[in-house]
Amino acid sequence: MGDPAKKPVVKPVEKTADPIISQIGDFRRYQFFFCALVFLSKFGTGWHTLAHIFLAAPTDLVCKTANVTDACSDDCKEYEHDTSVFQTTIITEWDLVCDKRFLASLSQSIVMMGIMFGSMFFGMISDRFGRRPAFLSCCYMQLICGLIVCLSPYYWFYVITRFLTAFATGGTMCTSFVLIMEIIGPKKREIVAILYQIPFNVGHASLAIFAYYIRTWRWFQFSITIFSAVFLIYICLIPESPRWLLTTGKVDESIKILEKIAKRNRAPTETVRPEIEAAYKVLAAKAPSKKGNLWDLFKTPNLRLKTICMAFDWIVVCMVYYGTAQYISKLGGDIFLNNLIAASLGIPGTLLCIVLTKYLGRRITMIITNCISGVALLALVFLIYADQTIQVVCAIVGLFGASVTFPNAYLWGGEIFPTVVRSNGMGLCSMLGRVGGLLAPLICDLAHYEPWITPLIFGAVSAIAVVATCFLPETRGQPLPETLEDGENFGRKPAEGGK
């Protein structure tokens, strides 16, 4: 016979304005396990987004024709690639040199385009058909397409399969974050949402380690893709978001999942059904259950303003982060060490973001970090002919500011958009952020004409982002808006005496 004393102790859950969190707790055992699982998907996003650094690593071209030094001149009849550092890259594989040099950069532009469209597409799929099917689809698509890249016989086959891999990667970024945001309570939401960026930073930094030991591009691509096989366990372990089920009228399904989570969290289960059904009645009374779409973000004035300002912040942070990282990496030296140092900067920046957003809030933190990037990069405009060490310090400070802004943008965006259009909103922001990422290398290239143009543009857009941030409401400690009406009213200053 079982000893009654050994039965799991049921711990009451603090009741809040959020009906979901009131049943399962703010952040208990199940949420920890769930987040650890979903965090695994973030390593792959760092690897596939930035793998181009080593897939198309620069290789010297040596002319074999006597008395000719320029391998791209008409006088050079024979040349060879320097394979002393990398045995093969896509440049040596398909001879992307001289008049075909632009094809290497084009392949990465198409990757960023794939991430852009993927985040938007899977964001809409997630809001329409559910978080789980969208998330699983992009995880498995990333695995399959990433492995096919390794077998590419032609350049354009490589480009298409890299686009498809990036398309899935963009979806993974968007849907995985929304899944986490919808199951964590407000007390731990900022910490978890910010720590969610750490696997991306680690993935970015570890690319240098993969590339150091694997000097052929096909095996390098295989090594960063095969890890995604772990996603097969997601079929059994990742449930649908109970919050999405509730807001779309699938109350029974939401209750069943919440009861399982409550049991694992040792929370009371007998109150789940009556309280969730009561919460749905209140929700249904406010607005009929509907699945949102992209255009809903722009139909009402307050939600439209918040969408535009948040999207602009995303464009700026992607432009400044990727652009400044590239700017630093062009300083020469060891490609492995340079990449490792630049990528590692994101880790302390992300950890600092936890402290700042917790004690200062999202808005003040965003203003401060954009100011740091803006001031450092605008200072670089006037120090562009100063000692190189001073230039590097300014650029590193600018990058560090952006590394704090990045996780804050994820956190804040996930809290501002209401549940029925959260994936659409985050997908839109991520898509426009990739536009910033696409523009970043082009802005860096302007330094060939005037070296001060690049830091001027990055610094100026950071300063403009400070102004845009002032129009966004603080979300720290607030329940997530659920309906479009909630999203429109949230942060509106006039009425109700001010919250």
Automatic annotation (TrEMBL):
Which residue ranges are recorded for the region named Disordered?
479-499
Compositional bias ranges of the Basic and acidic residues kind:
489-499
Q: Which InterPro entries does the record associate with it?
A: MFS_dom, MFS_sugar_transport-like, MFS_trans_sf
Q: What are the subcellular locations of this protein?
A: Membrane
SUPFAM superfamilies in UniProt: MFS general substrate transporter
Please give the start and end residues of each transmembrane region.
Answer: 32-55, 102-122, 134-157, 163-184, 191-213, 219-237, 308-329, 335-357, 364-384, 390-413, 425-443, 449-472
- Its protein name is Major facilitator superfamily (MFS) profile domain-containing protein
